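Our preliminary data section would be incomplete without showing what the modeling component actually yields. Below, a chain of 134 amino acids is followed by its predicted structure, encoded as tokens that our downstream tools consume directly.
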Amino acid sequence: MERLELRYSDTLKALSTLKDILKEPFSMIVRDAAIQRFEYTFEVFWKFIKEYLKEKEGIIANSPKSCFKEVFSLGIASEDETVALQEMTDKRNETSHTYKERVAQGIHEKLPEYCSLMEKILQKIDDRKQSEKF
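Predicted structure:
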């Protein structure tokens, strides 16, 4: 139980840092910092979901895409949200290519949408388990 609580807290903190950088005026440095924050936010987000699925649902999923398919099957994410989560995974995998201007710009443009999506999924999980303490 403690591990799930820690992952949830880490995810909220990481998401907060991503939201903060997205409020800054655009520059290439801010863009690159935002992409870096997206990388670590994505990592703690999907690992929280992995732990949630294991602890609360008895489901073992070992990759981001398999975790997101499972939250869809549980009704936590809609079909459109699941498609967006899968796309977000692909964009995360592209972050190692941000030295290419086109890739960096494409990822950065999607960050507000991904931030909102992660918040929405976290809220749905929180609502689902509001009667239980993580």
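The CA atoms of residues 61 and 67 lie 5 Å apart. The mean pLDDT is 95. Preliminary results of this kind motivate Aim 1 of the renewal.
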